[in-house]
Amino acid sequence: MERITESSKQHPDGVFTRLYRYLLREDIYYMAYKNLYANAGAATKGIDDDTADGFGVKYVSGIIESLKSLEYSPKPVRRTYIPKHNGKLRPLGIPSFQDKLIQEAIRQILEAIYEPIFSDNSHGFRPERSCHTAFDRIKYGFNGTKWFIEGDIKGCFDNIDHKLLLGILAEKIKDSKLINLIGAFLKAGYMEEWKYFQTYSGTPQGGILSLILANIYLHGLDKKVAEIKKRFDTTEPKKYTAEYMQVKREINSMHMRLRKHPESPDSEKWKARKTELKKQLVKIPVYQDNNKRICYVRYADDFLIGVVGSKEDCAAIKAELKGYLADVLKLELSDEKTKITHSSENARFLGYDVSVRRSQELKRRSDGVKQRAMNGTVMLNVPLKDKIEEFLISNGYGVRTANGKIVPIAAKGLRNRSDFEIVSTYNSQIRGICNYYRMASNFPKLDYFVYIMEYSCLKTLASKHQTTMAKARGSRRTGKRWGVPYETKTGTKTLVFLNMTDIRKSRKAKLEDVDVVPKSVSKRNEIRNRLQSGICELCGCGNVPVVVHHVKSLKSLKGKSAWEQKMRSIRRKTLIVCETCHNKIHNRTFC
């Protein structure tokens, strides 16, 4: 994979051949299993009973034999639906685990080829990139923007053309076996309520390959915007505005008069005039900037374009992109959601409100010169009404009063849970929202959100224990804070409720530590080493075929059998066992 990546870096227009042979190697599946088994979805069944449980040497050999003989056929995915924030449902495809493994192996190959040539403006579902890296690019790269184009592709994942996608892959990959296998995954179809449905377009959401295939497909859009930018941008030298130069000359004139005639009876009048002109100067545009430029950021199927130019330029760019998407990529740019917004107003991108400041506030530089440091800089804001208040109301943490204010209420859906689970739920949701909006200029306004969540939590605990909110807090006080006790192996500990002090400390962490898709650099594969040892970690027998026994989570282990005690003691979701012990575990005959 490293050699492929290096070759792709050195030869961006090069092609790759004989890639299918990498799918016939054992090590790629051990790496794929390492990447998948820790995910909660590894224990989720597709249309069959195949999960991460039972993985081993025989399992891998079976996959390789079916691929070598070209007899492998992907199974249809099991379709389920997950709720969206707007009340609608999003379809989610759940493949069988064997299909997940092969898709993950293919994903590693595709990532090695395409990651070096992807645009720096693409941030969705890529290693070491995230929503926050996209916001960072906007914050420091969109300064001075006059207009925003908020791009939204209608039903992007569902409308990707299979034939066109395979054609794009074939331009870079000259290996018909691999291309045909990817095509088989795209056309595998799905099962819904035990009925089979064929898929004619789109990449199923939930599939391992879906995200990288969407990025490969939309790479053409990135190149199209780069082409427009190259044609649109101008770089003429900046010129001072006539108004600025006129005032500047008059200031210099006053300065020279005071210098040559310091004792003149008009000197006080000249000083007053000079002071007045300096106040005028800071309000006048310095440069006559006639240059045009485009800034662009994309995250999956959402993109934001910043334009320094006219509204007519924005309309022309939007029309050109709409035509390109329709004619070349066979996708539709949503007219309703693709808005042209003046940068003094808020443009919505990935849940943030983006605007450009028009500020006349002066700040003194280190050399003593005053300047309008904030003017033209990008401002990222939390959409308090649309996002935060809606979250509180829809989750039952708050209710809007007649005067429009949000007040905390008890969360009815949490009253039947333990105190630890209640506080843990509130803490995780506070941490998630505050962490996501950590780059917002109006971040301090989340104080009220944390206040609502804290008092909603206290009301929930009070409602559960049939007591007052003051007593619910007083009985759980720990110093100046409050929390709930919970038991561990080392004794009783306290889960303290989060406050803004904790959140502000975490906000100061480096950007690269936040929400970034990690890039795997570890060459150690522990699962493979444990399997190749051939030793059962339960009965201790050696030189026997062993498999992985996998559980969804350690919390799900409630019994007192030896295998459960073993997994809890080593604190792992996996246990390497012989086939005899594995059968006993599943037949519930293991003591």
Q: Low-confidence parts, pLDDT < 50 over ≥5 residues?
A: 510-523
Number of helical segments?
19
Tell me what portion of residues adopts beta-strand conformation: 15-25%
N-to-C span: 44 Å
State Rg. 30 Å
- How many strand segments? 25
Largest beta-sheet details: 5 strands, antiparallel
Helicity level? 40-55%
Shape: globular
**Mean model confidence by pLDDT:** 88
Content-based structural category: alpha+beta
Provide a quick synopsis of the model:
By secondary structure, the protein is an alpha+beta fold. The chain has 19 helices and 25 strands. The chain is 41% helix and 17% strand.
Provide structural commentary.
By secondary structure, the chain is α+β, with helices and mostly antiparallel strands. It is 41% helix and 17% strand. The chain contains 19 helices and 25 strands. α1 packs parallel to α4 (97-114) and α8 crosses α11 (311-327).
